[in-house]
């Protein structure tokens, strides 16, 4: 089959998935995965994905991770960290431990247990925000806390992935020297990204750094303003790709670099009113940021990104024997993460975040989802490096599915009690 025919089938599947997501008000990710599963098991696409689709899917997850980082306001994120650190920390440790204990009891392999735990650590903030929006709660205090905590979780998970995956892929035993080496490599990478974000992208710097030639005059804004901002999208995506390639050089997945690139690109770089343009003084449209963000979001969440999830779904070949084998494992992992996630995030929100009990429980429900980063870890561990056995991969997929379904159900169930308590307070 011609690769472009495969792409046409994948895009048709994406459209069907989007329609199903709109009808059910669930995250499209679930339906992307299901469509991939259906396509491969109905024989509409080959079991062995061709190289074109694999590379297209790889580009898709880079777009997705950059878009997720690009959505975050760095200043708001830093300002909210003090109130959300406990929710993020304990809300991540709980599911990590639950997934690790179940995986260790079943497979008794350190690499498998660690990858399962990493996959189940990060919260799917996009799914939660969609669910809160449908209930009219997207501007509430719980939405802000969930958003900030989920971002901290994602960054922590990315650091953990950056450290653990190279060790697991290398097949080395986890030793103090190995952990320190991987940790040092991860620290160096994040330091370089911080330097790029703090001293290379901005201009008009304060202090001694403002006297450094070139750094004190030129920055990302000058590249974005070139030719009246017509190439702003290409410019920041080039930055994302370069940081992704740098992450790959350090032994990490390019998506890690893309996410960090998105996080350090600030909206103020698109505020051209008081900046000189790179080549000429031609006025630049004030809508460049909105237009660029819309293009990136379209590529990440509609055009290229969904191919990653559909392709991941094609890895699930229906096997009744495997399915019956892993159902008890999936049930144990789902139940364990469900209970511990709500308990740890809720208690942390109450005692470290100063939230009321009705708000704390809503935060616990909102942090149940598992989406983009979980599937990135699964792709790295199962598709790219064969760390996970088929049974573990299926277990994680089923667990993620039911946790995601639980988010809109629990939020809708708890909303009347939440609103009544808010009215009394």
How would you sum up this structure, described in words?
This protein has 425 residues and is mainly α. The chain has a single domain, classed as Up-down Bundle (Na+/H+ antiporter like fold). It is built from 17 helices and no strands. Helix 1 crosses helix 2 and helix 14 packs parallel to helix 17. It is globular and about 60 Å long. About 3% of the residues have low confidence.
- Structural class by SSE content: mainly alpha
Please report the first level of CATH classification, the CATH class: Mainly Alpha
Strand content: under 5%
Integer average pLDDT: 80
Q: What letter string, H or E per element, gives the SSE order? A: HHHHHHHHHHHHHHHHH
Radius of gyration, in Å, reads 22 Å
Give the tally of structural domains: 1
Poorly predicted runs of 5 or more residues: 274-284
Annotate the secondary structure layout.
Layout: H1 3-24, H2 28-41, H3 51-71, H4 74-107, H5 110-119, H6 125-134, H7 141-170, H8 176-200, H9 220-224, H10 232-249, H11 254-264, H12 288-303, H13 305-313, H14 320-351, H15 357-366, H16 372-384, H17 390-424
Task: Give keywords.
single chain; 425 residues; Na+/H+ antiporter like fold; 17 helices; 0% strand
Please give a quick description of this structure.
74% of the residues lie in helices and 0% in strands.
